Amino acid sequence: MKKSIGAKTIIFPTPVLVIGTYDTHNKPNLMTVAWGGICCSAPPCVAISLRKATYTYNNIMEKKAFTINILSEDMVKNADYYGIVSGKNEDKFLRTNITPVKSDLIDAPYGKEFPFVLECRLLKSLEIGLHTQFIGEILDVKAEESILDKSSLPDMERLKPFSFDPATRNYFRTGKMLAKGFSIGREV
Amino acid sequence: MKKSIGAKTIIFPTPVLVIGTYDTHNKPNLMTVAWGGICCSAPPCVAISLRKATYTYNNIMEKKAFTINILSEDMVKNADYYGIVSGKNEDKFLRTNITPVKSDLIDAPYGKEFPFVLECRLLKSLEIGLHTQFIGEILDVKAEESILDKSSLPDMERLKPFSFDPATRNYFRTGKMLAKGFSIGREV
User: Fold this and answer.
1) Complex confidence, ipTM
2) Which residues from chain B sit within 8 angstroms of residue A82, using beta carbons?
3) How many CB atoms lie within 10 A of CB A157?
4) DSSP symbols for B36-80
5) In chain B, what residues touch A134 (CB-CB under 8 Å)?
6) I need a labelling partner for A3 at 20 to 30 A (CA). Which of A66, A124, A135, B38 fits?
């Protein structure tokens, strides 16, 4: 029996995306967002949504660029911190001992210690309501060699990414492999 | 040491969203997409991206409505099947013994046997490239009572949602709770 629980912004899983930007004075900043996802295969694009009140919103508007950093389980504390505190008041790279590295492709920084990074050029921005959606074209993906498999693709067991549960606002580990995609469905 | 792996559409985790629509003859259809995510808190909105060639693309353009169904682990075979086969050729509800239920709010069906459903009214569509992004306003969320906790919020341990890995194209289980959000970051 289904029960209505109201117009809530809940899907599972929701990602934990750490956005890297520079401000007008080229101070690097990090901010965590959960509203986002891949939105086009060609050109390869990813969408993230931000409130106008955030420091990162202004940085993206100014520099037309951002990185998306995916963290491993052992850095969940960092990810949560980047979502709680504003870059207006703190140097979040410094506070968490993360080294800002300027992308060679766009005017945005990523974290040297982060295992997986997307470098994005702002393609479009769209006002929706409380949030503005930024669509970034993915110009390159950089990953620590230690998390790559033989095909140079990220290995989930090594990367150990985690997700956010918008219902309880807790972080969850990624579990074991469940099934092969574009394969198990052929049994239907 | 970071290695460039090219401009790939990879983030972790990526959701597995089963989209419910009606065609012009009111035949219900299901299609799985991985390109999507919540995109605004107020109004509550979710974005999904589809290629023009899909049956669901035309259905959404016609009916201006869709549901998003989140499935449990035990239905991974269904989710994979809905992404492999086109509704042009098959009745995917019938083939998988899922009962189409017309939403009381929008002109779209959901699966009676699916545990968690978002009912969405098309708000905007945005051409990006190969994919068109549809932004839906979430009008209601309906969930099986068996997956709800005492606060009437979905309980991840009961829902058992799974994710898609765009790198290896495999499905992964959701793991255990890792940390409390808006909390563990305060230790920094």
Assistant:
1) 0.97
2) 185
3) 12
4) EEEEETTTTEEEEEEETTSHHHHHHHHHSEEEEEE--GGGHHHHH
5) none
6) B38
